[in-house]
Structures are given as C-alpha cells and as structure tokens.
Amino acid sequence: MPKIDGYLTREKILEVAEKLFSEVGYDAASIGAISKLAGINKATIYYHFKDKLSILHCLYSNMIEQMKNRLMPIDESKIDLKSKIKMELNFLREKKNIISILLMESMKTNTSDDSLFRIASDGINNEKARLNDLTNAQAKKDLFFVHEFFTGFVPILNFVVLEEKYRDFFHIDEDKVIENFIEAIIRSHYNSHIQ
Amino acid sequence: MPKIDGYLTREKILEVAEKLFSEVGYDAASIGAISKLAGINKATIYYHFKDKLSILHCLYSNMIEQMKNRLMPIDESKIDLKSKIKMELNFLREKKNIISILLMESMKTNTSDDSLFRIASDGINNEKARLNDLTNAQAKKDLFFVHEFFTGFVPILNFVVLEEKYRDFFHIDEDKVIENFIEAIIRSHYNSHIQ
Amino acid sequence: MPKIDGYLTREKILEVAEKLFSEVGYDAASIGAISKLAGINKATIYYHFKDKLSILHCLYSNMIEQMKNRLMPIDESKIDLKSKIKMELNFLREKKNIISILLMESMKTNTSDDSLFRIASDGINNEKARLNDLTNAQAKKDLFFVHEFFTGFVPILNFVVLEEKYRDFFHIDEDKVIENFIEAIIRSHYNSHIQ
Amino acid sequence: MPKIDGYLTREKILEVAEKLFSEVGYDAASIGAISKLAGINKATIYYHFKDKLSILHCLYSNMIEQMKNRLMPIDESKIDLKSKIKMELNFLREKKNIISILLMESMKTNTSDDSLFRIASDGINNEKARLNDLTNAQAKKDLFFVHEFFTGFVPILNFVVLEEKYRDFFHIDEDKVIENFIEAIIRSHYNSHIQ
DNA sequence: GATGAATGAGCATTCATTCAT
DNA sequence: CATGAATGAATGCTCATTCAT
C-alpha cells in the first residue's frame, strides 16, 4: 500500500464510497467493503474521516460545490431549450451516484436530512427571477416552488437515477429514452412554467 | 396486544416492519427492532416469515393487491379532474410508507428489483386505452410510457413521500401544498398528455 | 455449546467477568476474553447483559446483596474480638475479586461511581449505634465516619486485595500476615473507636 | 504551547498522561487522547517514549525520585505530630494523580507490579530505626511492617485519592475532612506504633 | 404458534504502534 | 525533533438466523 499521498487516498475513499453507497444504499455499504474495494486499510479511512456519516456529508458538500458552479437559469426561449436540457441532463447523469444516494436518504421518513431541499432551493432560486409579478408574492412563490420542485427537479433527478433500470425493464435503448424524456419534460414542465 | 390468532401476529409484524422500513430504510431496520416495537418475539417473526427479505416482498405484494383493486383510468374530462386527482392522492398518501420503501429500494443502482416498474406499468397500461393511434404504435407507446412514468407517476409518488418534509423545510401548511401540487401536476402532466 | 440453561450461562459469565476484571482491570478485560474463558459465544453475553458496564453493575449488586445479609456490628467486648475479626476477614477474603474491582474503579478520579461509599455507609451505619453521645451530633458523626472509613473499612479492604502480593514481596507466609494484620488493626482502629 | 525544546514536550506528555491515567485509568487512557490533550502529535509521543507502558514507568520513577528526596522519619514527640502529618499530607496530596495510578495498578490481581511495595518499604525502612528491640527481630519486624503498611501507609494514600469523592458523597467540606482524618490517623495508627 | 437461548459473521470504530519525510 | 499517513489487530456491540422446547 503506497503511503505516497494522503490526498489521493482521501479521493479514492470518496470515489469508492460514492459508488458503493449508490449501489447498495448507505446502510448496506460497510466501511469494510469500502476499504476492500479501495485497497485501503479500514483504519486509514478513519484517519481521513471522523465516521461513516461524515463520508456521506463530504460527498454531499462536493456535489453542492459542483452544482453551485454550474446551475444557471434555463430561459424560456424555445430556440435551444432542448439542447440546454440535454446539456443539463448530461451534467446530472455524471452525478447519478450521489444523486441516487441523496434521494434514498431523503426518503427515509424519520431523518431530518434536508439536503435535497437545500440543494433544490439553491437551484430553483436561481430561476425565481422569472417570476414577474411581485404583488401577492408569497402565494405565487409557493406555487412556483412546488411546480419547480415536483414537476421539474424531482422528475429530472429520478430520471437520472432510474433511466438505466427503466431501459432494462422496458427494453428501450438509451438514446431513445433520453429523447423521449426530454420531449416529455418540455411538454409538461417547461410548457407550464409559472410566470 | 390481543394475539387471538396467528393472523393478527402476522399483521402486526407487517405493520411495524412497514413503518420501520420507511422510517430508517430496509437495511437499517433490524429484525430485533421490529420485534421490540411489535412486542413480538424475534423467533416468532421467523415462524411467520422465512427471512427479512420475504417481509419486504410480502409488503410489496399487499401493496400491489391494493393497487390492482383500485387503479382506474382518469379520463380527460376536465370537469372533475381535480377531485379525481385529489382522491387518487389521498389513496396514495395512505400508502406513503410502502411507497417510500419501494422508491428507496428501486434507487439502489445495483439491485435487480423492478417492482417499481411492474407496478407502474400495471397502472399505466390501464390508461393506454387513451392512445388513439394504433399505427406507428411502438414509438408513440414508448413516448407515452416515458411521459406517464416520469412526469406523472414519479412526481406523484415522490410528492407522497416528500410532502411532509417539504412542508417542514419550506414552512407551508399541508392543505396549501397539496392544492399547489395538484395545480402543478395538472398544468404540467395532465395538460400535456400524449394522445 | 449446550443450550441447556440460561441461568447457568449468566452465572458463568458473571463468574468469569469478576475473575478477569480483578486480574487485569475492567478496561483491559475484553468481552472477547471473557467469552473465550467462559466458553460462551460473545453474542450470548449480549443476550444476557445489555452492555459491558451492566456486567460490572450486576457484580456490584450481587456483592451488596451478600454484604447486606452479613454485616453485623462488632462489639467492643475484647473477649472474642479477634475471632470476630477473623471471621469478618474470611468473609471478605472470599470476595477479594469484586473488592479489588470496586477499589480500582473508585479510584478513577473522574468517575462519579460512588459504590464504594454507598457500600461503606451501609456497613458503617450498622455500627453507628455505638455512638453514645447524641448532643453535638453532626461533628462527632463526621469524625466517627472518617475514622471508621479510613482507618477501618479502607485498610481491611486493601488488606484483602493486597495481602497476597504483600506476602510475595515480603516473603511472609499467609497465616502470619493475617495474624499480624489482625493484631495491627485491633491495636490501631479498634482500640481507638470514637464513642 | 511553546515547544522550545524536547524537554518541554516530554514534560507536557508526562503531565497530561498522569492526569488522564488517574482520571480514567491506565487502560482507558489512549495515546491518541493524550496526544490530543497535550496538543502533541501521536508519533511525537513515540519519539520520546518507547511505548505506552514506559510512560507509566517514567511517571513511577519521577514519583519515587521525589519521595526519596522527602520521606523523613516522623518521630513520636507528640508536640508537633499533628503539623508534621499535615505537612506530609499536603506533600502527598500534590501527588494525588500518580498515587491513584499506583494504587489502581497495584490492585490488578495478576500483575507482578510491586512498585507500591517498593515505595512503601523505602519509606517504612526510614522509620525502622524506631524499633528498639533487636532480639527476636524478624517476628517483630514483620508485625511492624504490616502495621506501618496497612494501618499507616495504605490509609493515607487512600485518603489522598478518595478524599474529594468522600467529600462529595458525604457533603463535608475539605478542611473538616482533613482535620478529621488527621485526628483519626493519630488516634489509631500513631498511638499504636510498634516499638 | 410462540419463545428463550444461542451463535457465526459482521458492524463501526479505536487501539498502540510504525515509518518515511 | 516532529509529523502526516498508515496499519493489523482488537474493541464493544449488533446482525439475521436457528433450534429445542
């Protein structure tokens, strides 16, 4: 085992943890399994991270960091909406693993983990500029957020996570399913934006 | 707890398991915890169920059973679409726990669990009648399914699971969030049905 | 491994734990070592005891129980004081192990474990009847307790624990050391009782 | 922390180790905890000490050194016996931590650690001069040692270690408990010296 | 039907210790 | 002198599961 570089070790742990958490879930992924897959001693993981949970939190932070440097308002001009969504989707598809972890953890009904909402509201707030009516603000903002979150953000994240399994089950090929999803999300969510 | 016969014990186990699985996830919910919460001996659980996984499968079966006896096509007549959705939503909200389990398990990227898709395609097939064009069938059907699944089925299930946490995070009250969601899902999904 | 009798298993665990705790100290005695010495599976220990600490507490309780059924006032009549002390000493020498544990744990300066004092005050209160002066009570009682505790109780417990090592170091034989200790404790403590 | 030279670092380690050993016991005090409390890297501790045990041995040596430069015979002249004991007690009370460690370690029934006896016999031999009868020497010396050790040395060390907890439990204030102990130890031990 | 007792394997975490720099 | 990084072995404890009764 090379003692060369603590930074690389840390990265390797995060990489393997993200993969395993998303494959079997946070709880079923053991530190022992991570250490074996990473080729790193179990105790070394605890040199770099306080505990198992802090690995998860670190993954979240890294994702948020990347999201921040990226999420930009997608405007309504239909000219290139499709390609904009395609880019967005490709960006998110690279983050499939951490997104699946985020969704699974958020769906535990008794945790107070609100990462999903914090991330969503960061992203959605970027687009709030679209709201042109500032009278009667709160009621409209509430509807706007629900619409953005449940008919935009949520379907997209779910698509990223479930797409592959969807293809396997329905025997459709990748390009087609993506094409179809983009058409569906434009028709439904983007064509019904609250303004 | 009156354990009049084995049936009640079995029901109690299922009831507690469903609650706990949804609260902390399938993996973090131990048989020991279930037995303690249910006031039932651990070994008794193994009298009624072969193993932990078969409890989960039994919960799935029960849900599918209930879904089958219920899912009916929601037609396009906008007259009472809203109240129809409201009813649908109330029906599903009672199943919040098992739905959260189903979603969490489906999102593990390495499982071959396709319950989510089997349940979805049962439901969606009921509505396929709506498709009026039978020529060029497959391509259209594919789009239809993607649309139904990712912009209808998925947002609704996610809403059922996340609604309470959404309210806590955004400080909105229950009635309003439901009202808003129904408006959003009608605007987006139902107004863009593939026909 | 016989599954015959949970009570016996529990007793065996306590017996081995007491021995090991006193040999190497509570902290250095691992549950694994106890289980190995007892010929009992590690997990079985946790079936019978909530955690490691509750084994210790159980040992304390058992000792206190035995002490209660035993400690009687030793009166001043010198006729058979010696043989009374000898009996007392033999009784305590059988409890050498738990006494050494009790002392070691009590000497950790940051624990709030007051078992030693609770046990001592039980024993000493039995003898408080000897105090014949009830005027000016508290100051006298305080002195009485300090005297009983630090020049009676403490030397006796320390003797029980250290006697064997004392003999090894000073190369004296058992009978003689006991004889000498009894003479010393009578001369010092019993001849100077607060009355 | 000014780590001007290695000497200070070494001192700091010893200081923190002594504190922690006495607080939680030698076994429960980890090198990691010592290093954190001392603000010194774990590996640095191993630069200064071969292993954990040698820290303990070093603390013992230091104590013995200090004891040697100090222990003087307390003669029988009752004139100022009280103040002599008070001084002795103050000297030992400053060494409470290492004394508690010494006692705890000595009470492990399977260790061959005889530091307690070596220290005691150093101190007691200083006073052996008091013995005026040199015929029949051994039997008398044996009694003398037992008396000095178990009714003098042991109660005093135990008092030093347990005093604070004694006060907490019995709700007595410091001055009073010391006053009482001195009276008790004079009455019992010093008034019954073997001569 | 139900249960007390038991277990092997595994869990997250910590240990004292090492070593290249 | 000092340290960041690493490790094998062990820690207390929990797991799903079994089985005689």
Quick description:
Four copies of one chain form a homotetramer. Chain A has nine helices and no strands. The first copy, chain A, has helices at residues 6-24, 31-38, 42-48, 52-68, 81-93, 96-106, 115-127, 137-170, 174-188.
Q: Could you characterize the architecture of this molecule?
A:
Four copies of one chain form a homotetramer. The model of chain A has no long low-confidence stretch (mean pLDDT 89). The relative contact order of chain A is 0.10. Helix content of chain A is 70%, strand content 0%. Chain A is built from nine helices and no strands. Chain A folds into two domains: 1-49, Homeodomain-like (Arc Repressor Mutant, subunit A); 60-192. In chain A, helix 1 crosses helix 6, helix 6 (96-106) packs across helix 8 (137-170) and helix 8 runs antiparallel to helix 9 (174-188). Chain A is mainly alpha-helical and 195 residues long. The longest helix of chain A is centred in the last third of the chain and has 34 residues, at 137-170. Chains in contact: A-B, C-D. Chain C binds a DNA duplex (21 and 21 nucleotides) through residues 1, 3-6, 9, 30-32, 40-48, 51-52.
The average pLDDT score of chain A comes to 89
Largest sheet of chain A: none
How far apart are the termini of chain A? 58 Å
- Encode the helix/strand succession of chain A as letters: HHHHHHHHH
β-sheet strand percentage of chain A = under 5%
Shape of chain A: globular
How much helical structure, as a percent, in the residues of chain A?
over 70%
Number of domains of chain A: 2
Multimerization state? homotetramer
State the total count of DSSP E strands of chain A: 0
Assign the structural class of chain A, choosing from mainly alpha, mainly beta, alpha/beta, alpha+beta, or little secondary structure.
Answer: mainly alpha
Radius of gyration of chain A: 19 Å
How many helices of chain A does DSSP assign? Answer: 9
User: Low-confidence spans of chain A: pLDDT under 50, at least 5 residues?
Assistant: none
Q: Which two chains have the most extensive interface, and how many residues on each?
A: A-B, 56 and 56 residues
